[in-house]
Every structure is written in structure tokens, then in C-alpha cells.
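Record type: monomer structure entry
Structure origin: computed from sequence
Chain ID: A
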Amino acid sequence: MVVVSRMIEIVEREYGITDGLRLVLRNVNGHIRMKGYDGNTIKMRAEKKWGLLAPEPKIKVKKEGNFLKIEATHKKTFGISLGGSSVNFDIFVPKTVEVEEVDSVNGKISISDVVGVLKIGSVNGSIELENVEVSKVGNVNGPIKAVLRAVRNDVKISTVNGSVKVSLPRNTDATILAGTINGTVSAEGFEGIALTGKFGPKSLSAQLGSGKYSVNLSTVNGNIEIKLI
């Protein structure tokens, strides 16, 4: 039996905000939990883990113009690396700060109550969004669940392997296009809404209001559920 020891370090930081500040967060291995709050600093708690002979992950923080960029980096190793390395982020963001981008390779992303999340991307892991506005959400292996508080721009939400579940305000002014290859599309709360094209079992198109914006939902392997709230 081989016992792999692991090192753990907790890093806690606070960053002041300025008018027009935008946040960018990038991770490789580990979860990202982000929540908006009524405060005036960005609060970061990062749990770093690394195993025997594995390099310690680093957290780089850089201010570039109106952007605050936080990034976890992992040094490449050649040879034996036991235990791997990861960084779990818990971030509290003032509701006056727009989140420009959140990216991860391996790990769950969950975001709630923040302003202006323009781009969210993952490769392996689920994405859960609650009470947010988004522009582009992309995944490869994992489901996406999004409860949008408003749609004020074009929205694209897609994954390859996983389901897509999206809830929209009933007063959304957008054209909805949804499609899956290996799965089904279902809709709830569309009573009285004109369907502009084919509905089911693998696609849906509908216009809400004047159809000012577009909401595109897609997956290859998985179901799509759309709900008006």
C-alpha cells in the first residue's frame, strides 16, 4: 500500500476596487465558487493542495488597467509526480464589480449574485449559475445549469457531453434557439408563447417579446430543459 502525503496551504487576500474594475479568474485543477455581496473589496480564499514530489501551485494576481486578474498556475513536471496539485477558489465579489471571465480546466464552477459575467468556460466539470447575467458559457465534459435574472445581450450556452438546464424571466425579450443531437428538448412555462419553428423532440425555437436578443442553447450528448419563471 502506497500512502501519498499532501501539503495544504490556505491563502486569504482582499483587494480594493476602483470604478470600472473588472475581474478575471482562471484555474486549472480545483473548484471555483464565486458569490456577489454588498461590500467594497474582492475577498479571495484559496486552498492550495499538492502531493509528494508534485510542485506547489502558484497564485498570480495582476492589475492591468481596469482588470484584476487572478490565475492559478501549475509547473510542468517531467517524471514522477505523486498526488498532483490543485487550487480551490472561494471568491466574494462586490455587486458593483463586473466579472469579465471565469475559466477552469478541471473542477466545478458555481457563480451566484454577481454582475455581468461575460464569459465562463470549463473543460471537465459542472457549471452552476444562479441569479446572474451572462454572454457566453461553454463546457466540454459536464452539465450546465443556469438561472438568469435578465437577458440584456446575446447569450450562448453550450456543452458537448452533458445536459443544459436554463431558467429565464418570462419578460425576456429574445429569440430562443435550442438543439441537441443525442437527447431531447423540453420546455416549461411557455403557455401563450408563439413557437416560431419546429418544437421537439430535439429542437425548439420561440420568440419572447420582440425577439431583440438571441439565446442559443446546445449540447451534443444530453438533454436541454428550458423554463420561463
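Annotation 1: The radius of gyration is 20 Å.
Annotation 2: The longest strand covers residues 6-16.
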